[in-house]
Amino acid sequence: MDHIHYVRQICGILGNKSLVLSHNDLLKGNILFRAKDKKIFFIDFDFICYNYSSFDIYSFFNELQFDYDVKEPPYFSWRKGTREIEEAFEKFLREFVVFQAHDLKNVETLD
Asked: Which of 5, 20, 34, 65 suits a disulfide with 53, CB 3.0-4.6 Å?
């Protein structure tokens, strides 16, 4: 199964059925981690409004596929096939599913 199909399947199950208050700009730079007490903080709430509950999840991992530190036009590049991002996404989804206590027994596995 390809990743796009997998993401659509998971996001549909996890709640594209309801609107929630969303960050809507959940980039890596807008998430801070304080190691001493293992707390996570979100910053930059300029775009906060209601959106589908899986929007921030999908948007966050979509943005991880791009490198914005490129010094020449177009000033970004696509990190195609980066296994580190795929593993982080799969780990996040597993933890999120447990946290949300959803029953995903009908979801196909990502090969």
From this structure: 20
